[in-house]
Amino acid sequence: MFPKGSRLVVVVLIVIGVIAWSSLFVVKETEQVVVTQLGRPVGEPITQAGLHFKLPLIQKANFFEKRVLKWDGNPNQIPTKDKKYIWVDSTARWRIKDPLLFLMRVGNVPTALSRLDGIIDAVVRDHVSNNFLEELVRSEGWEDAKAKLLEAGVQEFQLLLESVEGTETGETLFAPVIKGREKITREMVADASRLVPEFGIELLDIRIKRINYVDSVQEKVFERMVSERKRIAAQYRSEGEGERAAILGEMERELAKISSEAFRTSQEIRGRADATATQIYANTFGRDPEFYQFYRSLEFYQGFNNPRSTFVLSSDADLFRYLGSIQGNTRGASGQRPASEP
Amino acid sequence: MKRLKGRFSLPSLGRGPFWGLALLVVAALIGFTSYYTVQPEETAVVLRFGKFVRTAGAGLHFKIPFGVEDVTKVITGRVLQREYGYRTVSPGVRTRFAEKGYEEESRMLSGDLNVIDIQWTVQYMIKNPVDYLFQLHDVEGTLDDISESVMRRIVGNRFADEVLTIGRASIADLAGREIQEIMDTYRTGLQIVVVKLQNANPPDAVKAAFNEVNEARQEKERMINEAQQVYNERIPRARGQARQMITQAEGYALQRVNRAEGDVTRFASILEEYRKAPDVTRRRMYLESMPQFIEKVDRIIVLDESGPGVLPLLNLGSGGLAGWSAGEDTGAAAGRPAEEK
Question: Domain named Band: which ranges (chain A) (predicted)?
């Protein structure tokens, strides 16, 4: 068994251990600490990680998050300046800048988040209601979007452009951005930042995570999109029909041109040839027209070829004259009357 | 309790062995808590009393036990991934995706206030494990928020037509850079490897109409092609026919002129001879050609101008031999050759 003295030593050691344990505390890299003595803050907040001391029993270490924290808003249904109802889901980043003040005003992160709810929600609501939907959606550089699409030659976009040109829709569609999304969110941050320092909080950023139409509006938007596309489709179809008609018309014209030109040319050629031939005949036959007549008549007789024809001759035709008497008649072939009877 | 006490005070055990056992236990505890191993894809971050002291790479390492040094391992070697607007259900060669139920993430407004569904992926690595652990609470959650916010900003600054067609690559690229910038300002320690758009579609309710536009465009092309086909079928043929017409005419012209020249040459030759002896030649030519002619006709009727009229001599309706008649006083023999036919 232990002697009485040694038992006392063990007790003393345990007590010292407990005191030492309660006077040392570890601060992690992700934490910062405010030490309070009987409820009253003592000294500067500890932001350095490592092993730290405090008075046991009467001093208490209050731990706070040192990292940047997230705030996530509830999606809110908010009307914009142009009375379009939209869901806005925003998010923010913040951190505990002054843990002492934070301890005094809010105490812990969940309470802080609920305070931020009130502040950020209100700020977001104000700014959304003060701006047009286009301004919330678009941001700097929107003006380039049109040029880029035109340059790329997206056909549907060109059709869209033609259809809205000069209309009110067209004006809002290509209106330059006045503020734009970044500037509006920067304004939100600036506004909200003025309200949070009294909580010991620093607001780093507010972002619009999602913007969407409320369901009933979305239906209408879908209908609009459908009608827009249908219009484009109709245009394509009628363009196709138009092009087809144009091509076929062009073809008809071309056909008429080709065949008529060919006819003209061929007639010209024939005509020229006929003229040449006529000239040739005239030149030569003109040397003795009487003999030519005779010669042609004989050629006709020689060339005549119709085995079923009946030929009527006058009895004073040259033929009979030659047959009848030796004396010829140079009167010519005028007495002959060729005729054919089918 | 009494029995337990009794057991510890067993005289056979004595004091020595008890302390020995205790020391052994303590030594074992020290042994087991003073080393750690790090896998190849990990980086270990070592904290001493909560304060960051060092990082350690893959392998076996030692640390001060009893919670003095604490080790957190961060996967720094892997490319990690977040998905938006869809989730991978089971990865594999043919990965299955779930798309239903994530419309809230994928649905966004374009600059012309149309609604588009976009699914995208962000691949990232933890570049700086110290920043990753100590700068920001819930780094992944922040990445999600920033990713959604950035993607919506970019899409909101473009026309739906651009997002759905030519803009995909540039949108992904820009989103990657912008997310990286914001991650850097928050010192999240993340490095964005790549942002990829998976699907960029109009919402289901509108999809059919978008497809209709595509179909209409195809239809337009088809109509043009068909018309062009008819054109191509008929125009070259017509051109060929036109050429044919012209060459025929040219042929005719050649023939006409050549024949004329031939005729004329022949006539000229005959004329030359005829002039030497006109009467004889004329008679000869006449007599030469008549028999040939008579051979070629069915019959010849000879009318005597001083005789009766035509009608009595015509023997209509009868062919052949019976049809032959001639004036009595002239040589009926002239008709003979014809009669023989």
Answer: 22-221
